[in-house]
UniProtKB/TrEMBL annotation, chain A:
Pfam family, one: Fer2
PROSITE patterns cross-referenced by the UniProt entry: 2FE2S_FER_1, 2FE2S_FER_2
GO MF annotations, alphabetized: 2 iron, 2 sulfur cluster binding; metal ion binding; oxidoreductase activity
Taxonomic lineage: Bacteria, Pseudomonadati, Pseudomonadota, Alphaproteobacteria, Hyphomicrobiales
Domain called 2Fe-2S ferredoxin-type: residue spans: 1-77
Coiled-coil ranges per UniProt: none
Name of the protein in question: (2Fe-2S)-binding protein
UniProtKB/TrEMBL annotation, chain B:
Coiled-coil regions, chain positions: none
Source organism (scientific name): Bradyrhizobium centrolobii
Name of this protein: Aldehyde dehydrogenase
A UniProt-annotated Pfam family: MoCoBD_2
GO molecular function, one term: oxidoreductase activity
InterPro entries the record matches: Ald_Oxase/Xan_DH_a/b (IPR000674), AldOxase/xan_DH_MoCoBD1 (IPR008274), AldOxase/xan_DH_MoCoBD2 (IPR046867), AldOxase/xan_DH_Mopterin-bd_sf (IPR037165), EF_Hand_1_Ca_BS (IPR018247), N-heterocyclic_Hydroxylase (IPR052516), OxRdtase_Mopterin-bd_su_IorB (IPR012368), TAT_signal (IPR006311)
Domain Aldehyde oxidase/xanthine dehydrogenase a/b hammerhead, residue spans: 226-304
Superkingdom, natural source: Bacteria
SMART domains (alphabetical): Ald_Xan_dh_C (SM01008)
Length: 151, 735
């Protein structure tokens, strides 16, 4: 099946079965490896991308469900003001360790700040608890979200 | 004469490393440092090789490459897996080389024992919290050698005494400061000068450090916030296929039936590879490969381990641990002291098998050809990996090219080459490069686990409550006996007893031994914190039991036994003070303490917990004091204390791998639970500054945290936790 996907502002043609997860289309078919595979079961958030501004787990998003929605990945999140602010805060607070989960963390945080520009701790917990970091950078993730949000 | 030989040897090693790099084993790990845009990263092949061999490159040793364009490349002997080692090792080099961190790029070292061995471990392995300790002197020497040669080249050009010149930020200045030449301009001339022996160069007095000891920014951050960082799993090569793999659920089992035809009908699937122990479906992309693997509906022949169960493994440990083991320490007369003691305390402790569950699942890309084998992988053990692949393929080691990568979490898992070996076995049947990726389920169910240990302890207290006898028997698998057999002498595994053989306390009569018990059907290996992760939990829990038996405060009791050990006493006092030890807490709240000497560092933690009526444990705050001697980057240390603590705490609260019918019962993050952001406590770090030799940090907080938490649970509830993970059912309020 051929699909035309709108990703980071440009169109991409792919020819795969409709039930193939968006994650593998991004990583293997289109070579955009910033979006990570962690669990394949919507349990870790490493694969988080935005579909029409909503954070979704691309490992559980069938490519035929995307339609002409706009997909944004970590490679382009810096073009959005929340994404840029978060990336800057991530660098200022030295959040990353191995870094493998951080694409997903930033994508979840960007979706949070878009809808909730001044999140409380509880709102951060709710938006971010789907994102696992085995290196344990959570304390700095929380601080960086607040830093980016100016709270 | 001696010096001449040494010079020759160094020159030879340099040539060797240059050859290795020329063969393309080095990778640029990111592009941020050279200022390239995101777009060009996607255009660039994942395996872009640094242009090392630009004519006139200055390469005085295995660690420094400066080419005439001015690019300064530092080659990292240890691999980056989050611990910040590319930053701290760069800082050691840059301090003496006199370059700024934003003037360098870093590169993964190829396997090369002679150039890049970790002197503490004896192999080019990243582990044991040993990187800074092992490279503290060699990298500063390497930097100093480089700086001296660049200064000498400038002095020669200006016809002045090198002693009158100085270097700063990659530029050499003459005495007046009016003449200056950049390192790039000097590279070609410096490359022609004889290299002095590293041991002969002068190093800065630590009080003159300008970079070491500062909160310098990580060199790998910017590529990790916008998707540019390349991990092994991100490898992309022309013509590459992707393989999903199913490994026999029981160790030693074989595939019985594979519906190859069904797999091949899936769009994008190219090939099914059955190597008995595993089946791989090779496809154009992972989505097709996974779908094909499901369609293959594999059934398995379990083989001899189909009956393995946790209950049997524990029963075996219970039995074997009744027999004496290899003696790790025997001081005084424990038998007599125990018999004469006023009070006796006995306990059995148990800790479970643990998976590593790093966020980047196991993966490896292999291109096997007639005369060479190229490997793209993130590994903590490049030389071991190279040797094993050579053995497996029958090719000479030089034909095995290991391209190391950033690792998406190591924790010891990537000290093992089993993932690479499996990928090579699959690649033998595939034409062209193939990337083998394990699912999360495969990753958790075919890990090499932290061993299950069962410990028996007894202590005798005198009338004043002081411990006059201490015996500790550890029973479990010996990772060391399999991994580094020469380090095991007379059956004694030094890792299995580390931090148990020599507790920090004054114990006049002590006997510690180790009984090796290998569980059938289970592979064991290194896990963050290694031996001390289990031993410190046991020792620090038991000393807490003794304090209770002696009716003394846990901190005061420990202090009374640390008079001879000022550094341990200092971290304990600092942690207790910062945590507000002794200040009142509400009901079912408690504080617990633990103290540790391991990896060359002294650490103490105080945990504060609240135990709900239903037994739920909320860890509210962890205060950590650490004395790791002279240190490189305090920000990295704080990050490691935060992350390392959570790694250990996750295991204490949730971590357990169990076996039933030879199979691992956990499979993904819903059954092998990671801590999440809504669960984590605040972790505070208090760093002691002194001039002692550097100690390791990455594992210290992981090893120490469990006991602090379980001791806090005891303080809150009066219930002693003697096995992990913490069983919240046993902590329910009786009222
Ligand atoms: S890979 Fe999608 S949530 Fe884990
Ligand atoms: S930084 Fe390593 S998993 Fe989050």
């Amino acid at each position: 099946m051929a699909f035309t996907l709108k990703i980071n502002g440009s169109s991409h043609e792919v020819d795969v079965d409709g039930d193939i997860p968006l994650l593998w289309v991004l990583r293997d078919v289109l070579g955009m490896t910033g979006t990570k595979f962690g669990c394949g079961q919507a349990l870790c958030g490493a694969c988080t991308v935005h579909v029409d501004g909503q954070a979704v787990r691309s490992c559980q998003t069938r490519v035929d469900s995307v339609g002409d929605s706009a997909v944004t990945t970590i490679e382009a999140i810096g073009r959005a003001p929340q994404g840029a602010a978060l990336q800057k805060a991530w660098l200022e607070l030295e959040v990353v360790q191995c870094g493998y989960c951080q694409s997903g963390q930033i994508m979840s945080a960007a979706a949070l700040l878009k809808d909730t520009p001044k999140p409380t701790d509880d709102e951060i917990d709710a938006a971010m608890s789907g994102n696992v970091c085995r290196c344990g950078t959570y304390q700095r993730i929380r601080a960086a979200i607040k830093h980016a949000a100016g709270v | 004469m001696d010096r001449l030989i040494l010079t020759e040897q160094i020159a030879d090693e340099t040539a060797m490393s240059r050859r290795a790099l020329l063969q393309g084993t080095g990778l640029l790990l990111g592009f941020a440092l050279t200022g390239a845009s995101t777009e060009s990263v996607f255009a660039a092949p994942a395996s872009q090789v640094v242009e090392n061999e630009v004519a006139g490159t200055f390469a005085p040793n295995g660690f420094i490459r400066i080419n005439p364009t001015g690019a300064v490349t530092l080659i990292m002997p240890m691999v980056e897996m989050g611990q910040g080692v590319y930053t701290s090792l760069s800082m050691l080099l840059a301090e003496e080389l006199e370059v700024k961190l934003d003037q360098i790029q870093v590169q993964h070292a190829p396997p090369n024992h002679a150039l890049y061995v970790n002197s503490i471990i004896g192999i080019q392995n990243t582990g044991g919290s040993a990187s800074v300790r092992a490279f503290w002197t060699p990298l500063r020497q390497a930097g100093s050698v480089g700086r001296n040669l660049l200064i000498a080249a400038a002095a020669k050009r200006w016809n002045v005494d090198p002693a009158t010149c100085r270097a700063k930020d990659g530029v050499v200045f003459d005495a007046s400061g009016s003449k200056h030449l950049s390192y790039g301009e000097l590279a070609e001339a410096a490359a022609k000068l004889p290299v002095p022996p590293a041991a002969n160069v002068k190093l800065k007095n630590p009080k003159d450090f300008i970079l070491i000891g500062t909160r310098a920014k990580r060199v790998d951050s910017s590529i990790k916030v916008d998707g540019r960082a390349l991990y092994g799993i991100d490898t992309r090569l022309p013509g590459m296929k992707v393989a999903a793999v199913a490994i026999s659920p029981v160790l030693g089992g074989k595939a019985k039936t594979v519906d190859e035809k069904a797999a091949l009908t899936v769009k994008g699937v190219r090939q099914v590879v059955n190597i008995d122990e595993a089946v791989a479906v090779v496809a154009d992309h992972m989505g097709a490969a996974k779908k094909g693997l499901e369609a293959a509906a594999i059934t398995w022949d379990d083989g001899p381990n189909g009956k393995v169960s946790n209950a049997d493994i524990v029963k075996q440990l219970e039995e074997e641990s009744k027999k004496p083991g290899a003696v790790a320490r025997n001081v005084g007369d424990v038998g007599k002291a125990l018999a004469e003691a006023a009070q006796r305390v006995d306990a059995i402790y148990q800790v479970p098998f643990l998976a590593h569950a790093a966020m980047e699942p196991m993966n490896c890309t292999v291109h096997l050809q007639k005369d060479r084998c190229d490997i793209w992988v993130g590994t903590q053990a490049p030389t071991i990996t190279q040797s094993l692949v050579a053995e497996l393929t029958g090719l000479p080691k030089e034909a095995i090219k290991i391209r190391n990568h950033l690792i998406g979490g190591g924790f010891g898992r990537r000290l093992e080459a089993d993932g690479t070996v499996l990928a090579v076995k699959i690649a033998k049947h595939v034409d062209g490069p193939v990337k083998v990726i394990w699912s999360r389920e495969e990753d958790i169910q075919h890990d090499m686990y932290r061993p299950y240990y069962l410990d028996r302890l007894s202590a005798g207290l005198d009338a004043a409550g002081k411990p006059v006898a201490w015996t500790h028997r550890i029973a479990g698998s010996s990772v060391m006996a399999r991994y580094y057999p020469p380090y095991v002498k007379d059956g004694l595994d030094p890792d299995a007893v580390e931090a148990a053989a020599e507790p920090p306390y004054a114990l006049a009569n002590i006997h510690v031994d180790f009984v090796r018990v290998e569980p059938a059907g289970v592979r064991t290996s290194w896990w963050r914190g290694v031996g001390p992760t289990h031993n410190v939990f046991v020792v620090e829990s038991f000393i807490d039991e003794l304090a209770h038996a002696a009716k003394q405060d846990p901190v005061a009791y420990r202090k009374g036994l640390l008079g001879h050990n000022p550094r341990a006493l200092a971290v304990l006092s600092l942690a207790a003070e910062k945590a507000g030890w002794g200040s009142p807490l509400p009901a079912r709240h408690g504080r617990g303490v633990s103290v540790q000497f391991a990896y060359g560092s002294y650490t103490s933690q105080v945990a504060e917990v609240e135990v709900a009526a239903d037994g739920f444990v909320k860890v509210k705050r962890i205060v950590c004091a650490i004395d790791c001697g002279m240190y490189v980057n305090p920000d990295t240390i704080e990050a490691q204390v935060q992350g390392g603590t959570l790694f250990g705490l996750t295991a204490a609260l949730h971590g357990s791998i169990t076996f039933k019918d030879g199979r691992v019962e956990q499979s993904n993050f819903d059954s092998y639970l990671p801590m999440r952001i809504d669960e984590v406590p605040v972790v505070e770090t208090h760093l002691i500054k002194n001039a002692e030799a550097p100690g390791g940090v990455g594992e210290a907080p992981t090893a120490i945290v469990s006991a602090a938490v379980t001791n806090a649970i005891f303080a809150a509830t009066g219930r002693r936790v003697r096995s992990l993970p913490i069983d919240t059912n046993s902590l329910k309020s009786s009222s």
